[in-house]
Automatic annotation (TrEMBL):
The keyword Phosphoprotein does not apply. InterPro entries: AAA+_ATPase (IPR003593), ABC_Ni/Peptide_Import (IPR050388), ABC_transporter-like_ATP-bd (IPR003439), ABC_transporter-like_CS (IPR017871), Oligopep_ABC_C (IPR013563), P-loop_NTPase (IPR027417). One of its GO terms (cellular component) is plasma membrane. It is found in: Cell membrane. It comes from Actinomadura decatromicini. The keyword ATP-binding applies. This is ABC transporter ATP-binding protein. Keywords: ATP-binding, Cell membrane, Membrane, Nucleotide-binding, Transport.
Amino acid sequence: DAPLLEVDDLHVRFRVRGQDVHAVNGLSYTLDEGETVAILGESGSGKSVAAQAVMGILDVPPARIERGSVKLRGTELLGLPERRRREYRGDRVAMVFQDALTALNPVFTVGDQIRELYRVRRGLGRKESKAKAIELMERVRIPSAARRLGDHPHQFSGGMRQRIMIAMALALEPDVLIADEPTTALDVTVQAQIMRLLADLQDELRMGMVLITHDLGVVAGVADRIVVMYAGSVAERAPARALYARPAHPYTRGLLASVPRLDRRGGPLLPIKGAPPDPAALPSGCPFHPRCPRAEAVCAAERPPLVAVAPGHEAACHFAAEVHGAEPE
Ligand code: SF4
Ligand code: MG
């Protein structure tokens, strides 16, 4: 059987001020039913662009999918005509964004917005669409769902709005849910509730989930596999447990060292020095070399290929094997 979602060697470019910017440079991953793949990276790493390409909402200038493949159960999505693409969006692949307030229409009640989906996409009538909307709001655990259908987005808290957006994404029972920084705008306790909700819903519905985040803390306990992106490229790719236990890329080590952890009581947090590079002016060789504590002369000269350090575990570092073998910090 073909995997649920298979992204292979995806390359996305932007044309900015007459210059080609490589936003995504060879991203590959697969996702099966009930699995979560986390795409981890700082802003500008290409992780959101990659998600939009998969969702089919990027085929507009100045963005260009230069090559690669995105297959859903074996069907190539890239290059499908927009009319066919629309059939996939929502029905097969749905997306949750960071900011529910901009994704929801402020003018209409949440009930109307959810019911509109059932009306347009499923041809349901008034009564049926209302019943479905209530069911959906209960599913995402909005208290007094029936009563709140008539409320507008601004009458809900940030966390509740995010639940409504999740409800809308799930309305058509997609096979794949792409969650792009779904908790970033929320405070820490609400973040945990939303992640719990997403994990539970994924279990119930047996969806595949692509979780895009800059926060390794959000990923813990949710992701089966993790893809770490840096400056548009894959820095490391591994089963979650392997990546936490034995990272093979200095960037991943840096990310792990800067996450507060229960098992490192009072230990210092070590943020990675410097800022990610301008995608329009990437450093030579390894794009991480200006910030890398382990860099040597070869790093500025040669771009490291993605190499395997263990089955299913790869890193793009000239010293991946040594980094993988070293004691965790
Ligand atoms: Fe650091 Fe060099 Fe590895 Fe890049 S290739 S991550 S600069 S050690
Ligand atoms: Mg983003």
